[in-house]
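This follows on from our talk about sequence and fold. Can you supply me with one protein entry, sequence and fold together? Could you add the entry underneath, on a fresh line?
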Amino acid sequence: MAEQDNIKVVQEAYASFGRGDIEALLGSLDENVEWVLPGEGLIPQAGTYHGRDGVARFFQLLSETTEFATFEPGEFVAQGDHVVALGTYKGSARATGRTFEANWAMSFVIRDGKVVKFREYTDTGAIAPAFAVSAAASA
């Protein structure tokens, strides 16, 4: 696929997420997708997920633990089958009510019009305190 087509796959996935249409987003993924988020052990939804079912579990956990005030992909850069999106988000942890804000880069590998690999890069140090229940209890 052309780089612009790969960018469109990613943009459509973000649009589906923005509408809350997780089924459409899952449809943009390869059956054997690998989905990786940093902060395992610090951020409830962080970790590595495999397959569409694994990513569906990720989005369920994300919905249960996190409320976004803003989620804004801004710039898209493509080279071959790789697309990187740069953006920002602000939100809060549902368990504590504490807020977070961070810039992020999200990397996608696209094959045959489907996402086969996703990896997020963000400042986990800016996000993890929002989810730290002990920090909320002592504040």
